[in-house]
Queue: 2 jobs
Job 1
Amino acid sequence: MNGDTEAVLAANRAFYEAFEARDLDAMSVVWEHTDRATCTHPGWTTLRGWGQVAASWYALFQAAQRLQFILTDERVDVAGDVAWVSLNENILGVEAGATVAAVNVFVRDDDGGPHRGEWRMVVHHASVVTDSSPTIQ
Amino acid sequence: MNGDTEAVLAANRAFYEAFEARDLDAMSVVWEHTDRATCTHPGWTTLRGWGQVAASWYALFQAAQRLQFILTDERVDVAGDVAWVSLNENILGVEAGATVAAVNVFVRDDDGGPHRGEWRMVVHHASVVTDSSPTIQ
């Protein structure tokens, strides 16, 4: 595993740690604060721009329920300054548990500031797996 | 709109045209034939590698039902040789219609062959929008 892959995996894990901890500050560090920040929670319409995305995390973190994520089948691909992670979120804390398929896209920060080189989330798209044994596998 | 954005939008449209036409050859041209090809149909587990992805299109195109896509809210972002499109697929042909939120990731072909410079799909992730008016919008 090379350095980029490790750094992307670390950014990806920071996302789920912020989600589990319901820590809006930590979630804010994970994301790029731009118009292209795009988030699709399971079953939701797509939210665009950091303002909308942040508001969704604020609302989700107000909810009573704590979730725990067991991440499986992680695959990281890096192409230049963009990387994407596909994985399964095995979620404990919802009735009978749930498996959510997700893809997370990250972009390497190139703004020349103190965070230069760090990976920021620009896309999170998650969907509940409803058919555990599709006919095509 | 610059040339990259136009080319990515064209690749994205070619994907939906192949889907509507149930044309496996056209779908094959859209996708990168690599291990990183990743496809999550609504409610499905994630399929990885062009072999699995191609098999899913083959099976879907065998189904009797023709679908028609009206694409709305397309947003294209390009970063180097990677681009992603987020959009809504408004699908006619299923009972009462459906809205599917999708993100499609493309990579610019750099293999030096005759297709050098063309954009190929590496990720398609689609999920049905079940809540048309989430509390956070």
Job 2
Amino acid sequence: MVKLGNLKLTVIGGGSSYTPELMEGIINNQDVLKVSEVWLADVEEGKEKLSIIADLSRRMVKKKKCSIKIFETFDRKEAIKDADYIITQIRVGQLAMRRNDECISIKHGVIGQETTGAGGFMKALRTIPVLLDICRDIEELAPNAWLLNFTNPAGIITEAILKYSQVKVIGLCNNPINFYKKFANSYNVAIDDVSIHFTGINHLIWITDLYIKGKSRIDDILTGKSDSYEAKNIPAFGWDPEFLQSLGAVPCGYHKYYYQTDHILEKQLEQYYRNETRADNVQEIEKELFEVYQKPEIQEKPDILEQRGGAYYSEAAINLILSLHRNSKDVHTLNVRNNGTIKCLPDDVSIEVNCVVESHQITPLQVGDVPAQIRGLLQNVKAYEELTVEAAVYGDKGLAHQALTLHPLVPSAERAKNILDDMLPINKEFLPQFN
Amino acid sequence: MVKLGNLKLTVIGGGSSYTPELMEGIINNQDVLKVSEVWLADVEEGKEKLSIIADLSRRMVKKKKCSIKIFETFDRKEAIKDADYIITQIRVGQLAMRRNDECISIKHGVIGQETTGAGGFMKALRTIPVLLDICRDIEELAPNAWLLNFTNPAGIITEAILKYSQVKVIGLCNNPINFYKKFANSYNVAIDDVSIHFTGINHLIWITDLYIKGKSRIDDILTGKSDSYEAKNIPAFGWDPEFLQSLGAVPCGYHKYYYQTDHILEKQLEQYYRNETRADNVQEIEKELFEVYQKPEIQEKPDILEQRGGAYYSEAAINLILSLHRNSKDVHTLNVRNNGTIKCLPDDVSIEVNCVVESHQITPLQVGDVPAQIRGLLQNVKAYEELTVEAAVYGDKGLAHQALTLHPLVPSAERAKNILDDMLPINKEFLPQFN
Amino acid sequence: MVKLGNLKLTVIGGGSSYTPELMEGIINNQDVLKVSEVWLADVEEGKEKLSIIADLSRRMVKKKKCSIKIFETFDRKEAIKDADYIITQIRVGQLAMRRNDECISIKHGVIGQETTGAGGFMKALRTIPVLLDICRDIEELAPNAWLLNFTNPAGIITEAILKYSQVKVIGLCNNPINFYKKFANSYNVAIDDVSIHFTGINHLIWITDLYIKGKSRIDDILTGKSDSYEAKNIPAFGWDPEFLQSLGAVPCGYHKYYYQTDHILEKQLEQYYRNETRADNVQEIEKELFEVYQKPEIQEKPDILEQRGGAYYSEAAINLILSLHRNSKDVHTLNVRNNGTIKCLPDDVSIEVNCVVESHQITPLQVGDVPAQIRGLLQNVKAYEELTVEAAVYGDKGLAHQALTLHPLVPSAERAKNILDDMLPINKEFLPQFN
Amino acid sequence: MVKLGNLKLTVIGGGSSYTPELMEGIINNQDVLKVSEVWLADVEEGKEKLSIIADLSRRMVKKKKCSIKIFETFDRKEAIKDADYIITQIRVGQLAMRRNDECISIKHGVIGQETTGAGGFMKALRTIPVLLDICRDIEELAPNAWLLNFTNPAGIITEAILKYSQVKVIGLCNNPINFYKKFANSYNVAIDDVSIHFTGINHLIWITDLYIKGKSRIDDILTGKSDSYEAKNIPAFGWDPEFLQSLGAVPCGYHKYYYQTDHILEKQLEQYYRNETRADNVQEIEKELFEVYQKPEIQEKPDILEQRGGAYYSEAAINLILSLHRNSKDVHTLNVRNNGTIKCLPDDVSIEVNCVVESHQITPLQVGDVPAQIRGLLQNVKAYEELTVEAAVYGDKGLAHQALTLHPLVPSAERAKNILDDMLPINKEFLPQFN
């Protein structure tokens, strides 16, 4: 039901460095949202960060003369109770475990990225049980709340929640909003004049058509005539226009792991031998960020946050909350239950497609059939994701082995086994379901 | 592509008594639509009516100081050439043939309604070839135009166009907009606060859920606690709340032909014996209407038009054109290609569901599975419709017999044959494909 | 697992007048089957009949010098325990209730046949709970047994068992075997030279192709050039060859209820007014049969049994048991779970199609798509059957009303309600689930 | 139609070293088959081989006192005209091109096998146009003939024929018959006592259940308790029982390319560096075989043929022809159109599953759903096959690139491009469709 004002908004993983951006969004839309309480919940290990973030949030609220009350807590249930919107942005095992994920993968010669490949797989095993625990609390204490899940790998996590809880969950990613922003900018039009046909699953979405003010512009991108695509999202290597044309669709940034595997692997191996990982890099940025955050003179989201990556994450979240709140029937690109939308995928899996947002439900726009070029990879990765969810929920090592073997970036069952044999013991404390 | 101003809007069957309402809608939205030309095309037999309508339209335009030019023509191609929007509202064989449809049906003891049963079946056989001819012209002369088809039976006609032409067609009915109006009125809220889940096909749509400001209200209707449903749409007989509750959905008005067959049949037989048909009734109203239309002092849509039925037809059309024109991603309930939206129906049939409207395309919102209560009747009627399209396109009497036999309101193959044997000869001049 | 000899075969409803035919089949195939025990179980009300049948069976065994032991019992569990094959041929409420089913239906002007229409519907409501009880016993006492269900309406009963028990059930009908016999006879070839493509559900199967020695002969039947079809199976009225050709398939005998409704209804009304029902007719035949059965000089299946109808029922059963027993991968036409075989029907419903029989499983041969002529009626009747199963299992009067309303032979929701209101009270003692 | 005697049997690629085995099968079943003519057709380049094979065939026929006439011809049309069964076993480009396929693949670090990976891909591009040309002749000159396609990659070739011709084609492989033989042998039972549930596509079939005399034995294989599996079919590396158990199915030999990629790749690289390929190996065996074949004293299939591989190929073919000829409704494992049999694959693709064989048609047994472990790989490889067919038929280099990129054994789009850039020019004379 549409609720007018007095919203309670809860952030689980409130001590995250992203929170200030979210706070900014809430504050800037306070005339519509009328949030009365923001609860920042985190685990005790994150006490210091949580405290810094909560204090900064309070300064931000005060600066803008808002009446929002900021709460910080280690008691998740208290934060969840009667919340209207709950955002989850947690990292089970922190950056230390992410570092392990990346290093073990690459040590075995396979790409280990936070969301894709063996890295994302391991992160899912650690994270799903925690998220399902949170969902148990939501079912009990805030059954009508919308859960906005940002936690990566967002597609897999959202699928686990869709399959194993009653919570009204929506999976969110900043990939789609970035495409909208980019194309609006390239063609110098308003966001509303951009229409993008997305097909796929989280971090594996293809753009099968692009309309600017009602005119198809996809060929600009496929033929490389436009610079609107390669500029920022895709790193150094670029895409071969001939490849894009026979693909008939624009891949997203994460596709490079599948289509440009050789180069990415080489680059990751280099970094590994130099003992540099993305986890290390992020750790440094985070350190720097929190140093800035705690300065009393900082009363707004500092510009430095933009370097952290995750551009427009909060904007995506705030836009979604606004549509839910206003029951506005807007179109957003979200992770939801398939239910026949993409016909070549099972009904009960998560997909990332355009959806109409109403306050009581999210309805995907029909996609239908998918060309073979896209279908084969999409179905393979989705089957991997389904097995990962089952392995994580039931703590089934055999299914974990099957999942990893099926992953297109893992070249053999043996390699999958070796990675698993290294990863499971080191993650033991985060995998009670496997013991 | 979104076109700014200078729109050419063409009405085929421009001499229809509904046209003044449409004109009113165009004039009232002229600041957004910026229509430069309205072409009213009709057949020579309708010369007098066309002339009356065109003159009235000109008076209406002048009264409102609009700069729209009104053209009347018997040359369809001239009217279609380079049109941006084309509306078809024709009646092949006029009311005389409608009278035959109704009388022959009821003479054989089956319901003969203009859109449902043997009546709608016969109308489809006459109309599909004409509409497909029109589509040939549109393909050639205005390939980018949107065709808004009002011509009944709108679901069957739209399906024929979807299957046998390249034209960008949308089937339109006033059934959905009437539900929106009714519920908005009952709950005293704005139309935008009403969200209705429609499942079905033209003139056979069920409301499977209803939300008012984000809160489900379907139980109000199913339990009869609310008067919001039975009041106007459904005639005398009403619905049994127990039946509605086990159905789990709100039927539309045309469902009474299927669910209340006995009563409707009895009533139609009575009228038949009194030599009164709906066709006769409409003929009288039409006569009266045109008498009013030609009075020079009439410079606006006269109130008497409301008695004609078809409430909000033009509003539905104008709203749709506005959304197409503005590329607004609004949700409308339209007749479109299924493509997996309702999983229990074939991909290539027409369905009537909620859709997102963009200037370049209409995308249905995913419906998924349908409960058995709805499914059985829906699938049966749809198979009848598919066969009717084939019979009409190929002039296949055998398939015509199969179609009619399959119709739930026709009790046996023999009865179907007898009706057909009476109907085909009398319609001979309108059925070149059967000769 | 294939078991060699010492078979225990159980007949629930052993006192049925059909049992002697079954006994004959067992005895004639004893060299392959090596049955050691036949258990005839029945309810105490049927004591006299059971005793007559058991005695006759013993005389038949003795005459042929077989070593099969015949047991009669009212203790169903004793009969089921460790059985290898269990046959159910029961009639809950006996012929008295069948008489009610037929009379109440026709009184309301709708066809009331034992398996089709309101008659079959009511029989299903009475029978499903009893069959599911039997299945509970089989799950406990003979989990590896094959259950051959003859009990009508066989398709609906089998579907209930498939959905609500773990028993290995096969639904059997004599319709398919009669077609094989008839065509073999007409073309003067061996049964093995006849190949029939069946599509449909129990008592609603269409022959979509017919091959005699590898050559398609369906057109002989569709064009009426052959007399092989109409002779016996279809009563007086016959089929119009033009209708058959546009149907593109040969209907089964029960199709006349749907395609020739007017005639059947007229005939049933006549009988009703003469106070003659099929139930009365059967009652008389049964009386006569049992008088013969109890004569000590009768030591074989008496010829008079052939008048009872149900020709080749036992042959179908014995053939199936032989194939199961020998693990012979033969093709039989059986009622099994759809599982995608007929693509336009749900996965979990029962269908009647060609299947390969192995001792451990029955696998349907893929059917795929079905033409619209067949599809519409098939889907409608199947949805009615699904609702009937749910109504019977959950004792849900609302669903019972929806089921009956959806039935193509019931013209309106009101008529359905009136029939139900007459039927439910009179069946009260057999419908504990509704109380 | 079942034809009695006077069969004309045509072998396209009649000069193949496999032909003597086929001849042996024909001769041994001559009492049933009653073949009057065997036509061995080949290209002029194979003149010498063809002559040797034809002469040997004549000696074999004479030795057994058969009345079969042996024809040799370079005129394909003459051979096809009025044939009853046509067998295709051709190798476009001979072993020289196979050598290129293998070497180019491995040079780029990917597995290049004759049927799997880049090797099979290239072979398909060369072979499909030739097979479709043959089909044009069959459509014209022998439209009722059954085409038994042995030509590899048999699944892809069969799919191309199913999609782009009207010929009654069946794809055949010796993989399934080898499993039957092996299990019959291991369990010491007759072949008829073995029942294997196959799911998949050619050279990628999983055994999802195994029954010996009606008892499930799959666990014997999955747990490694039985030696019935690993002994011969799977090379040195063996399978990890834990992997098999979580897979829940027995892979076929070709699965090692996907599941044991590292080892196979290493082994192929070794051979490549030693300048030894499978093509070289086969070339030597062939040379030796033909030396034996031409000895006048050889009047039967020489034992040495067994070393050539392809065990039981001819037996599979002869068994199939026997079932077709006798209209016997036996179950064979064949490559046929999916049509919904495996629900997660498109309707129009080829699959390899159990089928019932009648003289007029082949009908697959319903498979239904497939577990995720199998599904992901199966769907990915099938999408690659679909694209390969399109690329081969339309000579579309872009689709060829997409096909190869999608193949699980090709790690990146760039690698696919490099392989293609090396392969296409060297195959130029065999790829008219690409020029």
